[in-house]
Amino acid sequence: MMLSRLARSALVLAAIAPSWGAPASAAEAVPRPGATSVCDGGDDAPTDAFGFTDSSGIVDLGGGSLGLTLGGNAGVREGRSLNRGATLLGSYGILPCLEIGASLFGGTTRSVIARERLKDRSHGAGLEMRYRLLNHSHHGFGLTFGMDVGVERNDDRQTGRFDSYNTGFKVLADRVLIPETLYAALNLSHNMIWNGTEPFSRSSTFAVGAALAWQFADGIYLSGEVRHLRQQNSLGFGNHAGHATFVGPGLYWQATERLALSIAYNVQVTGHERGRRGPLDLTNFSRHLVQVDIGWSF
Question: What's the CA angle centered on 296, arms 293 and 298, to 5 degrees?
């Protein structure tokens, strides 16, 4: 299901941190004298600088962003498959340290499995929330909690129409290793999916990813990441179906003050599908993943 890191919501966090360090407008609360803010992200790496992995940064209070993510994946067992999708995500800093986003997405999958031609189309919408708990200047590293929900309509030539419902949780952490030069990020996520018609089938994907981003020129970052994904035929961690490990590079370019472009590639280097022999899991996961992000901040 195409919910990017971006697709990235019913989690409620009780503590709301003080206002951002940016100048307050008439509609913004003025910080109390001596108050500190964990929302300040002046030394953050860009959110998309780590490839498929995210930084802990969120948009400023009263600010926003608009992003278009184009994704594709290919490589299955016993045939060939090509998936293409797009996600349009808008985010806004609605409260100090709290970012709310809404997305629209869609995609197509064309496959030839055991000489049978298959085609699937999908479209849907989602909501996401990110709340920043810690930042680098006060705590030595950044920490953000996120949650997203989504609904997707699928039109499969073989099985007909059915709906999918998604709820995902994530923890995003990052650290400045060398100021303005080298950054590290760590992500944990658990995505739960209800699929089909009632009674719904249930599945989930747990993922852990780590990445480094190096700013080798002003506004240009080169990244490398490792991600491990585990698929379950349940909403929790039981009934394991398979796992896969991906590695790959990424490139980020801050083209202007407001416009940014990035591209990331991952390839499955090891994995295993339950009940099958072989070094890869090409049933639950694809072999090749590509993602292109175009972001605009305001």
Answer: 155
Q: Angle at CA 143, nearest 5°, toward 38 and 230?
A: 165
Residues 42, 62: contact at Cβ < 8 Å? no
- For residue 117, which amino acid is it? R
- Domain interval for residue 155: 47-297
pLDDT tens for the chain, residues 1 to 298 = 433 443 343 333 333 333 333 333 333 333 333 334 567 667 789 999 999 999 999 998 899 999 999 999 998 877 788 899 999 999 999 998 999 999 999 999 887 776 677 778 999 999 999 999 998 888 889 999 999 999 999 887 666 788 899 999 999 999 999 999 999 999 999 999 998 766 678 999 999 999 999 999 999 999 999 999 999 999 998 889 999 999 999 999 999 999 999 999 999 999 999 988 888 999 899 999 999 999 999 8
**CATH number where 190 lies:** 2.40.128.130
Tokens of 117: 């031609």
Residue 121 lies inside a defined structural domain of this protein: yes
**Alpha carbon distances (Å) from 75 to 68, 113, 144, 271, 283:** 24, 11, 33, 14, 9
> What is the domain count for the chain?
1
Angle (nearest 5°) at CA 249 between 294 and 209: 90
SS3 label, residue 31: coil
Please give the helix or strand (H or E) that residue 136 lies within, else none.
Answer: helix 136-139
Torsional class of 224: left (φ above 0), alpha (ψ -120 to 50), beta (otherwise): beta
In-domain check, residue 23:
no
